[in-house]
């Protein structure tokens, strides 16, 4: 009984912390947001930007590379590890999950697997990346795609589930994404 009470109290504090992080997402300055997200455990590379209204589930498992942009209204599930490479861009409303429920388990237990997204990747709006996926350097995920399997470097994928559409023509990737605007 006492263990149940202690667990319930821990869950309340955890939920309160997630609510505070949602409020942090409303701060108009990306410098202030980045400060509070770092306090919560997100690891940022130099020049990384997280736009407004981004949500986290356990931010301690999230690492964002140099000069990477996470668009508005994205969701990053840090219960396992999410590693986003450098010079990578997430458009708006991208969802990255690294945990799911085992629908065949009698207790419906959670199963986690890390997600790795390479350097110079572009993820289009409303794309969903599921647990255990690795997206290679320079890959492109089209808008609305549901990525259930690994994406090779330089591939362009789209659809539900995501399938290869073609290869990316640009091979020598060395661009920088640029600065963040105040109200993004």
UniProtKB/TrEMBL annotation:
PROSITE patterns documented for this protein: HEXAPEP_TRANSFERASES
Pfam families: Hexapep (PF00132)
Keyword Repeat: yes
UniProt xrefs under InterPro entries: Hexapep (IPR001451), Hexapep_transf_CS (IPR018357), Hexapeptide_acetyltransf (IPR051159), Trimer_LpxA-like_sf (IPR011004)
Domain of life: Bacteria
GO molecular function, a single term: O-acyltransferase activity
Cellular component aspect of the GO annotation: cytosol
Record keywords: Acyltransferase, Repeat, Transferase
Family from the record: Belongs to the transferase hexapeptide repeat family.
Protein name: Acyltransferase
Organism encoding this protein: Candidatus Shapirobacteria bacterium CG09_land_8_20_14_0_10_49_15
């Amino acid at each position: 009984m006492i263990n149940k009470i202690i667990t319930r109290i821990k869950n309340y504090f955890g939920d309160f912390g997630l609510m505070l992080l949602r409020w942090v997402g409303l701060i108009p300055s990306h410098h202030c947001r980045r400060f509070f997200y770092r306090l919560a455990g997100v690891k940022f590379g130099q020049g990384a930007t997280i736009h407004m209204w981004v949500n986290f589930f356990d931010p301690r498992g999230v690492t964002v590379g140099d000069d990477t942009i996470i668009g508005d209204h994205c969701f990053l599930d840090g219960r396992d590890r999410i590693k986003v490479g450098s010079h990578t861009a997430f458009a708006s409303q991208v969802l990255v999950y690294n945990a799911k429920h085992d629908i065949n388990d009698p207790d419906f237990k959670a199963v986690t697997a890390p997600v790795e997204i390479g350097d110079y990747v572009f993820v289009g709006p409303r794309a969903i990346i599921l647990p255990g996926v690795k997206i290679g350097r320079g890959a492109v995920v089209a808008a609305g795609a549901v990525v259930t399997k690994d994406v090779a470097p330089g591939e362009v994928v789209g659809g539900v589930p995501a399938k290869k559409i073609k290869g990316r023509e640009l091979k020598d990737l060395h661009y920088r994404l640029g600065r963040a605007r105040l109200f993004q």
